[in-house]
Amino acid sequence: MTSYVVTSAPPNPNGDLHLGHLSGPFLGADVLTRHLRQRGHDVRYVGYSDEHSCYVPRRAAEIGSTAYPTAKLFGDRMEETLSLGAMHHDWFTRPLTDSTHTEFVQRFFLELWESGTLEVQELPVFHCAPCERYLYEAEVRGECQFCAEPSDGVYCEACGLPQAPAGLATPRCTACWNAPETKTMRRIVFPLERWREPLRAYYADAQAKAEWRPRLISYLDGLFERALPDTAISREADYGIPVPLPGWEGHILDTWFSGIWGYAAGTARVAEANGDRSEWERLWTDPETRIVNFIGFDCSFSHAVLWPALLLAQGELTLPAQVVINEFYRLEGDKFSTSRGHAIWGGEFLRRVNADALRFHLCLTGPERAQNNFSMKEFADTLSTVLAGSLERWTDTVLDLLAQDFDSVVPAPGPADGPLAAERAALPGQIAAALGAEAFSPHRAADALATVIERADADLRELALLRVSGPREEYAGRLAAHVELLAAVAVTAAPLMPGWSAFLAGHLGLPVDLGTRMPVWAAVEGRLLTEGTTLPTATPLFFHELS
C-alpha cells in the first residue's frame, strides 16, 4: 500500500464549472483516486476554491455584488456540480470561511522569509489613473509578450508562459478599458533562477519514474532555455491574504504563491476530520508519499516550476511525483469560455443527463495530449451506441439468460469458454496500466472498455444460437464467459462509471474494490447459490435521448 495525495487545480469562483473544467483536472483526479483506492492504496483527494483570486471582485462588479457573496455563490455552485458528477473531493477548502488556508499560507511564507529565500524588489506595475488602482492579472488585458495571443496579466493561456511585470503588449484596464500607465511598486520576489539545477534534478528523477505528458516536457525544456524569472509573490491590494510582516500593511500574498500551501492545508483539514490533524505532516514529509497534481496546461508554470521550487526552498515537504496536464476542451470547435458565456454548464447539464454517461464520454474524448472537441452529436452517439445500446443490451440479455437458466447453468457451468474468456483475462491488466498514476490515461481505459463491450454485444447472437441448438455444456460455458466478463467490466469500470458499476456489482454480489483480484465466476456463483435468483431483468441507467 502506497500513500497518495491527489489534487486538482483550484477553480476561480467566478462562474459555474463547465464541461471543459470537468473534462480535465476534476474528472481525472477523481478517476485516479477511485482507481488507486480500488487497488488498495491510501489516498487523500483535496482541493480548494481560489476565493482570494482577483477574478472574484471583477466578477462581483459585473453582477453588481461584492467579492465575498460572489465567492460564496459560485463556490456553492461549483461544489454542487462536482457532487452531481460524482467528482467531489475528500476535502474542498473554502478559504474565506476556513482559517486553516490562511494559516498555512502565512506560515510557509514566514518560513521562506526568515530563511532569507525571498527578496524585495522595485518592479514595474500597470496603474489605471481613471480607476485609481494598480492592475494585476484579471484587472488587465492585452497581448502575450511571447506569443501575442490575448492574455491577462500573469500567465498566458495559449503558451503557458509567465508575463513579466508590466510586460503585456497593448494593455487595457478591464474595468474602464483605458490604457494604463506604468509605475513601480515594492514587491516581495522569489528568485526562481537560483533553483535551476535542483529543479532539473527533480525533473530527471520524477520523469524516470512516471510518464509526464509530452507537451509539459516540451514546455519545461523551452522555459529552461532562458533565465528563469524572478517571480513576484506579493502586491498592493485590499482583497487577499495579508503579508504577515510589519511595514507591509496593504499588501497581499499572490494566489499563485499560495496554491501549494493550500493543498497542504486541505490535507490537514481532511486529516482533522478523520481525527488526527497531525497526519497531514506525516504524509507531506514522507518521501514515499506520491503527490499527484492535476492541472490544465495553462497552469504549468505554477504547478510544475514555481511550486516545486518553493518546496525545494522550504526543504521539508515532498515534491509532486506526477503533474498531469490536459489541453483545452473545445465546444463545437471554439474554446469554452466563462467570460463569453460559450459553455455548457456542468450543473445544468448534469441535471439532464446521467452522470456516468457524461463521465464515460469525457474520458473517451477528453483532451489528454491534444485539444479536442465536445459536440452534442458525439455525446449522443456515445450514449446511444456504447452505453444505452451495446452495454445495456448486453447487460440485460446476460442477466435475463442467467435468471432463466439458473438451475442448469450455475450448478455446473463448465469452463468459461469462447472469445470472451480471453477478453476477460486481459481487461484488468489493460485498465490497471491505463489508470495507474505513472502513465495515467482515462482515454485508454474508456477505449478498452468500449471495445470489450461492443465485442460482447456482438457475441450475443452466437450465444442465442447455442442456447437454442448447441450442446448444453458449451452454452453454459459461453454464458459463464459472458457473466465473468460482465462482472469484470462492472469492477474495472468503477473509476469511470461509479454509479452503474455499483448498481451491477451489487446485484452480482461483487465488491467493486476487487481490482484485478477475482475469481469472478466463483464469487458470482456463490452469491447466486446462497441468495437465489435476485437478478434484475433490466438496467435502466442510460437513456437513448437527451431530455
Explain what this protein looks like in three dimensions:
- This protein is an alpha/beta fold and about 550 residues long.
- Helix content is about 50%, strand content about 15%.
- It is built from 19 helices and 18 strands.
- The strands form five sheets. A five-stranded parallel beta sheet has the order 3-2-1-14-15, with helices on both faces. The chain has a four-stranded antiparallel beta sheet with strand order 5-4-9-10, with no helix packed on it. Strands 7-6-8 form a three-stranded antiparallel beta sheet, with no helix packed on it.
- A hairpin with a 2-residue loop joins strand 16 and strand 17.
- Helix 14 runs antiparallel to helix 15.
- The two termini are about 45 Å apart.
- The C terminus is likely disordered.
